Amino acid sequence: MKEAVFVKRNTEKWQEYESTPAHDPDRLTERFIELTDDLSYARTFYPNATVTRYLNGVASQFHQKLYANRREDRNRIAAFWKHELPLLMFESRFRLLYSFLFFIGACILGWISAAHDDTYVRLIMGDDYVNQTLENIKNGDPLAIYGGTGQADMFMQITVNNIKVSFAAFALGAFFSFGTIAILFQNGIMLGAFQYFFFERDLLLASVLKIWIHGTLEISAIVIAGGAGLVMGHSLLFPGTYSRLESFRQGAKKGMKIVIGLVPVFVAAGFLESFITRLTLHPVASSAIILVSAVFIVWYFVLYPRKVHRESMSA
């Protein structure tokens, strides 16, 4: 069967499935089976066609709805972390990649700007912070600023602030993604300038082993929150077959779920910054914490979603 004939025969059915959601679990299951059958056919005969990608996206949405409508309500939270969030991360993988690239680009820009302008770090970080850090360097403890506040107060302040930043990165995606990109650039430029400040004083390794104890989780979560903002912005820019309002509603819902899923990551980052970063750890211990944090982020938000997606397609 030619692709055009296949699409023409099934378009009305697919549109009905999307426009009139089924709330009955049995009916939802029937539709999901029909969609996966169509997807299997499309993968066999039109593996690189637009219709195959379209059916893959619709089938993923129905798979998520099936989990949302399961009768085991007591397992709802577990299902969110085990299936729903990973599937959302897989669906949003390209937005996550764009967020990462925007952030890395801003870091490079911040580093280069600081290297060519002696006043740039003060402009970005503020005179008080720079002066305090220079004083700490003279006293032999360049990162003493992390031990200057009570642990419990510092934990609450840092965690709340990080969550605010993540929600801002997401919410500003409503401005057709431009607000999210601005947040990513702001934080990326700050990080690049900050790291160059220590590099210039031959303290880059010391700063990395100290700051990235918590920064691995914190920065990764901001980038992922930026990806959530781009999901919402993308839904406005490219509504597809939906009305712009309906597309925005779905994009906002998906992005919000991703941001909510990041809250434990920010809590963990706040704990590390408040209770661990201030300690004088052996480089091996610092490296181990950074490595474990990085492996977790890559596994749960990049690799595990691919595994869950493959399993959902073969189910």
Descriptive keywords:
single chain, 315 residues, mainly alpha, 2 domains, SpoIIM-like
Shape from CA axes?
elongated
Q: Biggest sheet, in brief?
A: none
What is the helix content?
over 70%
Terminal-residue CA separation = 26 Å
By DSSP, the count of extended strands is 0
* Class from helix and strand fractions: mainly alpha
Describe this structure in words.
The chain is mainly α. The chain has two domains: 3-71; 91-314, no CATH class. Helices cover 82% and strands 0% of the residues. It is built from twelve helices and no strands. The radius of gyration is 23 Å and the shape is elongated. The two termini are 26 Å apart. The mean pLDDT is 87. This is Stage II sporulation protein M. It holds the Pfam family SpoIIM. The chain crosses the membrane at residues 96-114, 165-185, 219-238, 258-277, 283-303.
